[in-house]
Amino acid sequence: MRRRRLRIALLALPALVGTVLMATAPAGAVPAESTATAGSGRSHLEDRESVRLVHIHLTGADMLDKVVGAGFDLEHGVRRVPTGIEGEAVVTAKQIAELQAMGVRILGNEESFAWSDEADGGLQALGARAVQPLTHSETVRVVRADWFTTKGQGFLYVEARTTEGQQEEPVVAMQLENDSGRGTPFGFARTMSRFVDSGQYMFHRNLFKLDARPKQIRVTSSTGGVAIGDVSNWLEDAPPPLTANPRYKWDFIDGYKHPQQLYSRAEEIARQYPDIAEIVYLPNRTNGYQRKAQATIGGTGEAAVVVSSAAWGHEGGNDITVEFVDRPGADLPLTVEVVGKAVRVLLAKDASGGLASTAAEVAAALRAQSQGLIDRSHPYRTSTGTGIVASTPGPVALTDFLDQKRVGAPEGEVPRGPATIPVLRIGKHRDGKKPGVLIQAQDHAREWVPATTSLESAERLVHNYRSDRETKNIVDNTDVFFILSNNPDGANYSFYNFASQRRNMTNHCPDENADPARRNSWGVDLNRNYRVGSGHDGYSGASTSCVSDTYQGPEELSEPESKNIIWLVEKYSNIKFMMSVHSNGGQLFWQPGAYIADGRITTPRPPLGDEAFYWQSAARILSQVKAHRQTVVTPENVGGSSDVLYSSAGNVREDLYHTYGIYAFGWEVGGSVYNPDTGNWQGGSFQPPWVGDPNLVSGHAETMEYANGIMEMFRIAAEWGKDKKDPTSRLVPGAGKYSRPVDVRFETSEPATIYYTTDGSRPTLKSPRYEATEFREPGQVFHVTRTTTFRWFSVDSAGNVENNYDPAKNDKRNKYRTATITIRK
């Protein structure tokens, strides 16, 4: 069933400014600077501002929302700590000042830092928790109580909610106690952290390091509410991964791969394994790893002229020179001479023989008289161009600034023209009858591990198809589509020019931001360019500023890369699962991914059945990640992305889920790793050293462990495609006679959505849907005060309807479920 596209409230977003990158360059790598900026005649205004890595502290979710809303890119490496939120940022000196003016505290310059062992966050899979739903009247609820171990250390994560949490004066405090095992008393009292996002109370939550697994916890509110909950295991009983089989082939990737290497290997796989693989070429070509040749000519800002070639740099723009000439004489007009690719601007002279051409006048003359060589010519940024232009020492060569080589970048010439993105399709039966799985990597250019993780997964499929039973089952029963790099232009720029590049290379900036010193700030954030919950519709987390790293583009689906995704899922309607692979942060999430900040109005949350299926799948996927080297994606980092991270308007997951009914996951690979030597969590990075301590952060380790998770997603899809079993459900407590009002709820045998009525009518797909008590909680509790008959049916994630009931047909068999609660007063 295809879900209709959703359009929700429209709000105007102000123009936003600023850019903050959260990235860590590879060991030994430094931001490259083109040698073309040096030499006589070139302006210092072309120099890129230097950036540095800083550790930042925000007071809480409100500040995070304001910083993200202002266009600063805090990416995915943020971490909630008891005193607020911490993260890393690559910033210029000006951006540091802007952040400090907003109240952000700069903690220092660091290559990396260790997370505290206590932090806010999280949620465990709905189907795996032991905490029972509470009655309608209780004011405190234990939502999560999860235990996990990693590297020999145990941790307890707790999430609790109070119905009075929104009040500000006095602020409601929550205290946590736990026992030390069955039959022991509660103790070890600690205050929990209150989590408020965009002005709305979410819950209280904390992660605690413990020596022994507790059996139960007790949470007490400062307003008097008390709740007790059982502790559940988080990822503690994972089955062995496929790699545990000695005959299973894995570990194929030997280092980071640029797009040309990724695409070449995809096409080679299709040639080597034609019986199970092929290439699908996406129809919309990218802008290309190419830019117009430019120069900023002039001494000061008011007297500077920005010149851009009509041709791309590699197609002749780089051959153009521009010279400002001071001729002898007086009362001379401004004119332009062109000989071949040499452009000479003969500056005007006044009556006394002084130079008299303003920057604005020179810019206009170049546009009109350069014989088509110059496409754009304008004063520098927001200047009026009233400054008098000085002559240059000689000709200034225009350059596209793409001739640099960053330390450590792979060898090879980067193709400069528009790129055609290949999709590697793997499956024995590629006829549209098997459930499709789309793996999309590297929407964000600087995220190198997602590409190697995806390629490693593809290699495992083709190399083990004939020798491993589980792999054969996957390939025979799924139709997998790999986009190994959805942003090849930006990725090449990240490899060869600027490691922290996030966006594509399409420059939508007007003149005020089009000078070459802005070259690292151009492009569209592809994961803000989609149609549902977008910034254009008033949702938070995307910017209208063309120099922001969260720039949403001039309109929805403005970019060929995002148009290609929509083309793919519309052409191959069997695609039912999608994983958008990003880094870093270690989150695994889904809808809702965006909200309108005023009131925190999210995009529609998935039905309780879909939410439960997401959680069940997440537990399986993350168990396989842990099985590699005990890396735990903690409960705080799983759920709706706007709940565990922040609002990201216009992301691909929202569009694919709400428009096409695709189970669309977002994955931030490369999360924090617990270091038993220091007792802290080590944060990840976008480009960690490929080889490092096997117990800590490295590109190789992340590639292998997260490939385990992708393989598990394939198994989930294969099982989903073969699922023909109807779900079952029941009302708890069931039908019967009761002497007083009673609380009842629904339970299902598997993740399933329940449609019900209490007015005597037969249930249909238009009937009320059984919902969660609160987001990230189990199903609601009905407080029945008078005799009521419930009629209902359930539908699982694969579309199977309980008891083969057809809600569209009004037959007399009435295969829906029914139960009457009789209240005798």
UniProtKB/TrEMBL annotation:
Signal peptide segment: 1-29
UniProt entry keywords in alphabetical sequence: Hydrolase, Metalloprotease, Protease, Signal, Zinc
Pfam families, sorted: CHB_HEX_C_1 (PF13290), Peptidase_M14 (PF00246)
Active site: E668 (proton donor/acceptor)
Cofactors required: Zn(2+)
Superkingdom: Bacteria
Chain ranges of the Peptidase M14 domain: 378-710
InterPro entries xref list: GH29D-like_dom, Peptidase_M14
PANTHER family: PROTEASE FAMILY M14 CARBOXYPEPTIDASE A,B, SLL0236 PROTEIN
Protein family according to the UniProt entry: Belongs to the peptidase M14 family.
Name under which the protein is recorded: M14 family metallopeptidase
Organism: Plantactinospora solaniradicis
